[in-house]
Amino acid sequence: MLDDLSENQSLLQADCISKSFGSVPVLFSVNMEVHPGEVHALIGENGAGKSTLMKILSGFHSPSSGRILFEGQEISLPPNGEAEMMGIVLIHQELNLAEQMTVEENIFLGRELTKNGVLDRLAMQSIVKEYLQDIGLNISPSARISDLSIAEKQMVEIVKAISRNARVLIMDEPTAVLTEAETEIFFRQVLKLKEKGVAIVFVSHKLTEVKKISDRITILRDGQWIGTKDAGDVSLDAMAQMMVGRELSDLYPPMREADVDADVVLELKNLSTDGVRGVNFQLRKGEILGFSGLIGAGRTSVFEAICALRPITGGQVFVDGRETHFASVAAVRDAGIAYLTKDRKAKGLLLDKKMRPNLTLFSLPKFIKKFGLDTRAEDKALERAVRRFDIRARDPDITVGDMSGGNQQKLLLAKVMESEPRIVIIDEPTRGIDVGTKQQVYHFITALAAEGVSVVVISSEMPEIIGVCHRVVVMREGQITGSLTGDDITENEIVRYAAGLKREGAQ
Amino acid sequence: MTVSATNPLTRGKQMKFDVKTAGPAIALILLCIIGFSLNPAFLSEGNLSNLLTRSAFIGIIAIGATFVITAGGIDLSVGSMAAAIAGVMIIIMNSAVETLGTGVATVLLGCGCSILLGIGAGWINGVLTTKGKIEAFIVTLGTMGIYRSLVTYFADGGTLSLDFAIRGTYRPVYYDSFFGLPIPVWVFIVVSIVGWFLLNRTAFGRYCTAIGSNEGVAKYSAIKVDSVKTMTYMIQGLCVSLATIIYVPRLGSASSSTGVLWELEAIAAVIIGGTVLKGGYGRIGGTILGALILTTIGNILNFTDLISNYLNGTMQGLIIIIAVWLQRGDWGKAKAKQA
User: Fold this and answer.
1) Angle CA(A18)–CA(A20)–CA(A26) in degrees, nearest 5?
2) Phi, psi of B270 (to 5 degrees)
């Protein structure tokens, strides 16, 4: 710990910040104080409001109410990342680099050094080289960003921030996509910045990491400020307790026993696709099978391969015991299999269209009468879907992009279910939606299984995997490392498989 | 985690769409009023039928272009394609005189070949963009050059002329009327109705819109993106061949200057009609109005001495820019509301 006096003076402070998007409140009177030279972790479940708070602290969102203080002065931060000028830098999870430009060009983007009106490449290059050496990063200043690994890109973002004399560095899940070795390097860099007096705020779901690196921890839950603690004073369990807080039984429906003798509807033998090797598993009728693992473990790839969205490079897929080779997504759909993407905006819904065309798009052949589309049947389907999935749109003619995340997710569910699948793969079922909608989604999943539909839930949120699944498969680096059933499904066990501490022989 | 919530909700889209839909119709009515006030002969039956016939070529091609653009593509090759098809048609018909004579059979053979050539040329454009994964702009820029040079080559730098006797047989297709309307206008009407139905009332049309709106979503929604996109280029090719079939009897010849700049006029008609250039929203009705507007401008300039006829292109260019600016202006207002 630093015993610097300045440590006790806050550099950036959020005071009773509240925020709502439309009619959906996301943050309720949250406090957070950041001191120079401290590493401050922000933890909480998904949807707790961490990202929103970070965006408010860096000026990307403006708070609905409350004050922001910078060096003790109340200010309103300039929008669109202009707060960088004041030394407040947010590093987004989806990094913000010009992919086709070089490292050097990115670092000096917008404030290039010039000599006699011409770019002073030599000077810029030598400065960047110095930074890179300082950070221990072995890449050339003239390397193209698109050629770098994600970890390297992240480092470049950090160098960029340092080079702009960042005083507060805010990072959204910086370690989510890093390997352990890369994380080590990253933390070394964080400590160096800390010594220089930079305040570092970061979000992480890896609690051990949080405990190790941070000085103080702020916990959010459902948009509420739960507390700020010294890292030395809280145990991992205490952190988790504060994060989850509520009675989980309220959120998840009672678990129905799965029929272990039910027919196997989907089986994979030794499936390989890009980044995935030798995947074997069985899915039974009426079963809810969870797929857990770190981001990038290859879970999505496995199911995209099954659904003909990605080429299969090896192995076999059996549906109802028969080997199948699907030629197109349409053939997969006709076989009764549907995949619900986690990327709602880029792959799930047409944001500039209304609800009706979105709802029927996946199963449009069903709505063909003679030569044309049966719009009346479409309208009826929409009415049904709105009732069944409780989609709340003030106006049935609303453009989907203007709906809340929760309602979009419900519409996406409705769209996929419109094809009446027997096997549904739901990738991150509750990404970016509020707790109330989450609960509805969980109940819906459970009800589906009760009707005999087999459901695969891919999720990075452990509580939800534990709360709804009969069985959990854990993946790491493109391979299945373990499978858990019943009482063995615990956060601890999943983490051990996901982190590679434990591994099962082939099933 | 990354998606925290959606943007603030927006409202009041209804008004905007009305303006957008009615805009081209209002513009056309205004043009007609201007035309009539400058010279009452503008609304004479003869002139109107001439105007409609002229707009049929660009109109038919533009209907094809509406599909391509709605699905997020672009086809720059249509003008050259028309010239090349016209050239090959003439060569085929001329060489069939010996075996088939100068009757209807030869003309039908020419028309059949034209349709096959059009669909084939469209297929090439489509496959190169989808399977070859080359941008549509590049592919069609390339085929535009190829088709243009082919027609020059076939004509040996000069003009390909249709056999005089066949010309007599073929002539009515352009010059005759049916129920008071010239035949090209009938073709235009039929293509319009079929096109409108296809885009607005069939799964195919919905797929085109979905692909243009967001290809990723389309792919994940079990749409065969590549084949739908290829189909749009084939429809475009078919439209070009239909336009060529009614164009050839007009002059009975083809040269390297046939169909020059048709691609730009077709794209302009589509955009004036309110179809979004980056795809995802298409209007056949608007395209028809767009084609009529473009032809009407030229027609009015012919009728009056107020502005030189040589400034036709200037007027068309201004109309295109104003049309798109008006559409953009609407979006600006929507954004202001959002903030």
Assistant:
1) 75
2) -65, -45
Q: Is A438 on the interface with B (CB under 8 A)?
A: no
A198: left (phi over 0), alpha (psi -120 to 50) or beta: beta
When CB atoms are compared, the residue of B4, B210, B222 closest to A432 is B4
Separation CA B115–CA B121 (nearest Å)? 10
- Residues A424 and B266: their CA atoms lie apart, in Å, by 45
The closest of B86, A471, B258, A479 to A493, measured between CA atoms, is A471
- Verify whether the Cβ–Cβ distance B209 to A357 is below 8 Å: yes
Residue A476 phi, psi dihedral angles, 5° rounding? -145, 130
Domain B44-330 listed as CATH 3.90.1720: no
β-pair type (A24-34, A471-476): unpaired
A420/B20 Cα distance (integer angstroms): 38
For A456, the 3-state DSSP assignment is strand
Confidence of residue A463 (pLDDT cuts 50, 70, 90): confident
Q: Give the chain B residue nearest A415 (alpha carbons).
A: B221
- Tell me how far apart the alpha carbons of residues A100 and A143 are, in angstroms, rounded to a whole number: 10
Domain that holds residue A196: 5-247
Cα pseudo-dihedral B136, B138, B144, B150, rounded to 10: -120
Lowest mean pLDDT among A58-72, A153-167, A291-305, B151-165: A153-167
Residue A154 CB contacts under 8 Å (≥ 6 apart), including other chains: A91, A95, A174, A177, A178, A186
* Domain layout of chain B by residue ranges: 44-330
Computed over every residue of chain B, the mean pLDDT equals 87
B306 touches chain A (CB under 8 A): no
Q: Which of B301, B9, B312 is nearest to A392 (CA)?
A: B9
Domain assignment present for residue A344? The answer is no
The ipTM value here is 0.82
Q: What is the CATH number of the domain that holds A304?
A: 3.40.50.300
Give SS3 for A55: helix
Give residue B5's Cα distance to chain centre: 42
The number of beta carbons lying within 10 Å of the beta carbon of residue A162 is: 20
Whole-number Å distance between alpha carbons of A110 and A129:
19
- Which tokens is B114 given? 């034209």
Contact A394, A430 (CB under 8 A): no
